Automatic annotation (TrEMBL):
This is Thiamine pyrophosphate-requiring protein. Residues 188-318 form the Thiamine pyrophosphate enzyme central domain. GO terms for molecular function: acetolactate synthase activity; flavin adenine dinucleotide binding; magnesium ion binding; thiamine pyrophosphate binding. InterPro entries: DHS-like_NAD/FAD-binding_dom, THDP-binding, Thiamin_PyroP_enz_cen_dom, Thiamin_PyroP_enz_TPP-bd_dom, TPP-bd_CS, TPP_enz, TPP_enzyme_TPP-bd. It comes from Halorussus limi.
Amino acid sequence: MNVTEAIADILVEEGVDYLFGFPSNPLFDTGAVEEAGIETIIVRQERTGVHMADAVSRVTSGDEVGVFACQHGPGTENSFGGVAQSYAESVPLIAFPRGYDRSKTDVDPKFNSFLNYQHVTKSCEQLTDPEAVADTVRRAFSAARNGRPRPALVEIPMDVWDEDVGTIEYESTESRKTGPDPSDVPPAVDMLLDAERPVIYAGQGVHYAKGWEPLRELAELVEAPVATSLNGKSAFPEDHPLSLGAGSKSEPGQLAHFLDECDLLFGVGTSFSTTSYGITVPENNDIIHSTLDPTDVDKEVESDHAIVGDAKLTLEAMVAETEDRLDGPRGRREDVVAEIRDVEEEWLADWRPKLESDETPINPYRVIDELTEVVDAEDAIVTHDAGNARDFLAPFWESPEPLGYIGWGKTTQLGYGLGLAMGAKLAHPDKLCINVWGDGAIGMTGLDIETAARYDIPILSVLLNNDEMASYDTPFGGDFAKVAEGLGAYGERVEDPDEISAAIERGIEKTEEGTPVLLEFVTAKETELSRPDLD
């Protein structure tokens, strides 16, 4: 057995179903991975392969770690942005870039992944000793699976892949959870129960911990409204009466209202990192910060009390402690729900003219509104691209099921959403997987629509085409529906607002037949966002 074959067997033991990427890399070129029973997905551009691996990790809560491979030199250079995005968004994945021969790997100007990827990976190694293949790959998977999830990379020089390693023994890694210090839980519950207007804020850590049920239980016990980060969107059912929606650059009116008036913010599964695409943490109130990563505590937001541990274990401990304290309902749920409903109705009334607009070119909010009406959100996974696609969609799309929305935005990389939708569809073939994007994003990764067609990955891609790059007044052009048709997908260009719903319905039917779809909506240059200012 050589190094290539050993890695293929290790991937099987780790439960990997797909290998994403681009030749030349022995994991693709030799057929070893396919012989081991893993399907290979070769993309048009390396970054999209990383994005697909990223999605597999996200929509399985890290149960399956996405894996990517590419060639040395330009392959690793092209892949950098995708790995950096996954690092910023705290996504576990494994990258196996090919490297130059060991004798040349440090010769300038050859691109050395081991050196250059260290700041965008959690673990970064170069396999120079073939006999160490099992230990090296095990460390990578263990790093990705445990603690704060992030990418791990193993660069393998060209002259190492074919070297013999004999027979290896390998057992799959496990994801181990760390619970909170028991002494930290009662003070947190004291603060939560003493607060008059608490708000719970759930981040992506709730998804990875699968803490959805205890999050709902705690919210209902203390009768507190729940907001999420964009990465945490769908961690709390957004059709629940206590839901405030997700914080982002654009967000629901009720979220800003309750943040403005809360006297305690309990953040769970969140880093509280400052970003233009998250909530503005209110001042002059108490902060409880529950996070898996102790370096998050007091990093940018000073907390009054902190709990370090897995989000699910923390929430379960808080539910148990709260149940011991309460004899029954606290009696304020009805008032809280009514306040949420009233503020939301007022906010939606302000936006209804845009959501129901008959103008041409089509108002993009009309597209989003009809998408929410036609699609059954319980059976869908939705994501978006950077910029306006995110900002138009996030406040108005309600995700009732966990992992029904792939939210992101810390580094806002254009072209991310297409690969996310394709990876999600492979991981959950029973779901309608949708990406919403704009002119700039499709220019970055649009040719990978052909990848969706080649591998029969029937996603629904919604393009908001306003002939410019967001609000930068940079004119773009093109008939992308025709491009999609040329790439083997179903393409449809829509200019009449009265045709939006019918086009979406036709698109869904095509995906059910197994065909990827691009619906191109010719939209107005909308610049207004739902971003209420806090007082």
